[in-house]
Amino acid sequence: MPFLAAEPRVQCAVLGLNGLRPGADEFARQAASITIPLLFVFQRHDELVNVEAGLALFDAFGAKEKTMHINPGGHVGIPAHEREEFERFFLRHLGPGGV
């Protein structure tokens, strides 16, 4: 998060498996400053981050174009099909050359 908040060369990002906890004011400010297109992936039964914290982080992002994918399963259980979604997202925003 600090990297994306500080690096203007990044044009889009896929993030996930994180949340915004009460009192994490600096983290919330960083999230609000991120305005690039985002794809946020979250696991519904994540044993490390609860759904409310994940939704709070998603809501905190300043991006006008942001999408959240919520899948069943635990923290490390992101379905393989999400990789295809990541590729489509990057192709849509960066083009086939990834520029």
Explain what the structure shows.
The protein has 99 residues and is of the alpha/beta class. The chain has 4 helices and 3 strands; from the N terminus they run αβαβαβα. The model has no long low-confidence stretch (mean pLDDT 95).
Task: Provide the fold topology.
Blueprint: H1 2-6, E1 13-16, H2 25-33, E2 38-43, H3 51-60, E3 66-71, H4 81-94
Parallel strand pairs: 1-2, 2-3
Question: What key attributes describe this structure?
Answer:
99 residues, alpha/beta, 38% helix
Question: Strand share of the residues?
Answer: 15-25%
From the alpha carbons, calculate the radius of gyration and give it in angstroms: 13 Å
Reading side by side through the largest sheet, how are the strands ordered?
A: 1-2-3
Number of helices: 4
Major sheet description: 3 strands, parallel
Order of helices and strands: HEHEHEH
Helicity range of the residues?
A: 25-40%
DSSP strand tally: 3
Mean pLDDT: 95
Instruction: Label the structural class.
Output: alpha/beta
* Morphology: flat
Question: Uncertain segments of ≥5 residues (pLDDT<50)?
Answer: none
Instruction: Compute the separation of the termini in Å.
Output: 21 Å
Summarize the structure in short:
The protein has helices at residues 2-6, 25-33, 51-60, 81-94; strands spanning 13-16, 38-43, 66-71. By secondary structure, it is an alpha/beta fold.
